[in-house]
Amino acid sequence: MPADVSEYEIGPLRKGEEVALLETFRRVFGQAKSLEYWRWQFEANPCGQHAWVARTAAGQVISQFAALPRRLKVRDEVFLFGEVVDSMTDPEFRAGLKKPGLFASTCNAFVDEYGRPDREAIMYGLPNPPAFRIGRKLLGYVHLYDVELMTREIAVAEAAPRLRESPITGFGPEHDELWSRVAHQHVVSVIKDAQYLNWRYANCPSPIYQLREYRDDSGLIVGLAVFRPQWIREGYGAIADVIADSAHPLAPTLADSLQASGTGLGVQGLQAFVRPSSPFAHGLGARGFIPVPSHFRFVARTYEATVLPLDWLKDAWDIALGDFDVV
After folding, report:
1. Taking the model in full, what pTM does it have?
2. Residues facing residue 150 across a β-bridge
3. What is the per-residue pLDDT across 119-141, written as a single tens digit (0 to 9) for each?
């Protein structure tokens, strides 16, 4: 093996290298990711494909640093935030190189390309402990807070919800109208228009999410919810996302409607990740959801410290499990 990183080529992932990349993914993580899933996650992402790799002279992909970009509204501006995912280096190429190593060089090249306000103003994620140690050293990860999952068991007999629930298979103009109606209710949030929701949930090859909409008696959509039956906690499903019109008089009953939806998922309870200080978190708490510690650690780095300081962002960002690849 070459002893110097400069003898490897580092740059954007090229069309046709997906199979080699996924073989390295299998060796590193001990599990397979299908080509169909990768193409949905990266190629079909409406914000583009952000993946840089290191390759040998023979074309073997041996390292990657990548992110899933999302459009976020921040007050009245729009920024890209990148969720860092699938960062790795082939075990056979981790040792023996001069400093900086292969992973650090791939990471640095990615950050040089995307770590700025007009590209990825924020990089964020839920890294495991080893990834957090590396990210803190190489990326300047800042620990925002440990994730507590709002959790509630589904009672045998739930009160009848006051909103009419319907299953849906995708998102369209009515759901764009809902987002335009509620966007101003969030200081910082992923822009959850139909294009984003279809990519993130309706078009995802696996898992198959359960999509629900909630209307009042006039037929107006008051909220949307995305569920993943059977998540990391055995017997529990995840509320991956909720879009709700908090100004509607029936908005407080949406938590009851979510519970009623859970009875049809075949699970004994539901879990959600929401900003701890948000009105939605308080609303869930009033409906019997309690915060339960998890192994997730929410971290971020800002590349626009004036507009997006992290101490402000952590108390302003309305977050959901679906903003991460863990659900």
Report:
1. 0.94
2. 272, 291
3. 999 999 999 888 898 889 888 99
According to DSSP H, which parts of 155-245 are helical? 173-182, 194-197
HEC letters along 88-128? EECHHHCCCCCCCCHHHHHHHHHHHHHCCCCCCCEEEECCC
Helix, strand counts (H, E) of the chain: 9, 13
CB 239 within 8 A of CB 225: yes
Alpha carbons 113 and 304: distance in angstroms, whole number: 15
Angle at 227 between CA 225 and CA 229, to 5 degrees: 165
What are the tens digits of pLDDT across the range 164-191? 999 999 999 999 999 999 999 999 999 9
Tell me how far apart the alpha carbons of residues 192 and 201 are, in angstroms, rounded to a whole number: 11
Q: Is 190 in a helix, a strand, or coil?
A: strand
Domains in the chain, CATH or no CATH each: 5-120 (3.40.630.30), 149-294 (3.40.630.30)
Which two three-digit tokens encode residue 67?
Answer: 């992110």
- Among 273, 229, 220, smallest CA distance to 251 is for 220
Say how many CA atoms lie within 13 Å of 259 toward its Cβ: 25
